[in-house]
Amino acid sequence: MIYLDHAATAPPSRAVLEAQWPYLTQVFANPSSAHGPGRAARAGLDAALTEIAGVLGCRPGEVVLTSGGTEADDLALLGVAAAAPRGRHVVTTAVEHPAVLETARALGAGALGEPFRVDEVGVDGDGVVDLAALAAVLTPATTVCSVMLANNEVGAVQPVREVAALCRAVGVPLHVDAVQAPGQLGVRLDDLGADLLSVSAHKLGGPGGAGALAVRGAVPLAPMVHGGGQ
């Protein structure tokens, strides 16, 4: 069989499997434990966070590890909405991944109490967001704006830097779903001008069940899961 669906999920690379194997067989202790094996696991975790932060253009402490892109997207929208719900207004586009669209619609249906107003901005014939329409719905009271970097269905690349400028002009935090982009496009938080950015390892040869949300330090983010020192 010739597998041609790498854009959905790529097979894990040999280098990834070799790098992961020691942590599955030897360095498997709880990284929060004070004993030697725990400290070894913590060192491995810290090294991984440093490497991920270097790729995403942020500090290690600004990386939240998740179970994948969906959890990262959910946490970005729900976490900001719960921590700083000013205006109870979410702006996104009509062509986002369901991980973003359905989360935004859940907020619109009252997932966090009083329903949020949700604006899904349209796109042109190439699948690119209408910047004028986006600017028209953004206000200083908008809670969060979420726009993907690359579309998972048609491959359209969104003008994220221009979107970031529009968001900055009115003080709105921008979340970028970059799950489809690593390996094809740059995904640095600082370069794109984003405040939050989601990625997932399985799109580029990493293990399944591993993702990350980069969160700029000044952005308030409420946890969706409570308990555990991690």
TrEMBL record:
Domain Aminotransferase class V: 2-229
Catalyzed reactions: (sulfur carrier)-H + L-cysteine = (sulfur carrier)-SH + L-alanine
Cofactor: pyridoxal 5'-phosphate
Protein name: Aminotransferase class V-fold PLP-dependent enzyme
Domain of life: Bacteria
GO molecular function: cysteine desulfurase activity; transaminase activity
Transferase listed as a keyword: yes
